[in-house]
Design brief:
123 residues, mainly alpha, 5 helices
Amino acid sequence: MNIVHKLAESRIRQAMEAGELDNLPGAGRPLKLDDDRHVPPELRAAYRLLKNSGYLPPEAELRRDIADARALLSAARCEAERSRAARRLELLRMRLAHGRGGAEIHLDPQYEQQLLDGLSRED
C-alpha cells in the first residue's frame, strides 16, 4: 500500500471514529455501482450519457420486449389472446436469433406484410 492509500485510510478511520460518516444519505442501502470496466475509457462519458437518457442497445431493447411478450402470454385469458401473444413472442425471438437484436430481418415485403397482418388480426 502506497503513502496516499495509507493517508486516505487514516483519514477515513479518523472520520469514522469522530462520527462524521454517520447518517450519510443512502446509509445502510446497497451502492449502485456502474461497472463500466469493459467500456474503453474514451467512450465511458458517451455511454453514460446514453444510459442516463434512457437509451438501450437494440439487443437489450429486444430482450425487454421478449420478457414483456412472455408476461402477456402468461396473462392471456383466452385462446385468441394466447395465440396473438405467442406469435409476437416467436417473431421477437426470431429477430433476436437472426440479428442479435441489432440487425433487421429482411423478408419479402409481401410475406412481411402478411406476418404483420397476422399479428394485428383479431382471432
